[in-house]
Specification:
- This protein is an all-alpha fold.
- It has 6 helices and no strands.
- It has 2 domains: 74 residues, Winged helix-like DNA-binding domain superfamily/Winged helix DNA-binding domain (Arc Repressor Mutant, subunit A, Orthogonal Bundle), CATH 1.10.10.10; 45 residues.
- The longest helix has 22 residues.
Length: 130
C-alpha cells in the first residue's frame, strides 16, 4: 500500500485555512454576517467559490473578493490585537506545564493538589479541541 504524502503547498494551504478559521473564531463578530458566513463556508466547510456564490446568489468573483478582503481584515485585526498569538502562547505554556507536572511525584499531602492542577490544565486544553 502506497504511503500518502502531502506536498508542502498542500500543507501550507491547510495550515493557512486552520489559521484563518481560528482568526474567524476570535474576530468573526467584527465582520458582517455575509463576510463571516462566506469565509466560514470556504475555510471551514471547504465549499468552492462557485458553491458559495450559488447560495448567496452572487458571482464567483464577488465571493472571491469578499473572502480575500475578509482575510486581510482578519490579519489586520490580529496584527493590532494579537488574540490568536496570545492564545497560542498560553496553549504552549499549558502544554509545557502539563508535561512538567507529569514528571512530579506527589506526597500524600500534595497528591490531591497535583491531581487538581493536572485536571485544570487538561480541562483548559480540551476546551479548544471541543
Amino acid at each position: 500500500m502506497a504511503k500518502e504524502t502531502i506536498s508542502v503547498t498542500e500543507k501550507n494551504a491547510m495550515e493557512k485555512k486552520v489559521t484563518l478559521s481560528w482568526l474567524l473564531a476570535f474576530y468573526g463578530e467584527m465582520l458582517t454576517e455575509n463576510q463571516r458566513e462566506m469565509a466560514r463556508l470556504h475555510w471551514e466547510e471547504d465549499f468552492s467559490l462557485a458553491e458559495i456564490a450559488g447560495q448567496f446568489s452572487v458571482s464567483r468573483q464577488s465571493v472571491f473578493d469578499t473572502v480575500k478582503s475578509t482575510e486581510k481584515q482578519l490579519a489586520a485585526l490580529e496584527e493590532k490585537l494579537g488574540l490568536l498569538s496570545r492564545f497560542r502562547e498560553m496553549e504552549k505554556g499549558l502544554r509545557a506545564c502539563r508535561t512538567a507536572l507529569l514528571q512530579v511525584r506527589a506526597t500524600e499531602e500534595t497528591e490531591g493538589h497535583l491531581d487538581e492542577a493536572r485536571r485544570w490544565i487538561d480541562e483548559l486544553l480540551n476546551q479548544e479541541e471541543a
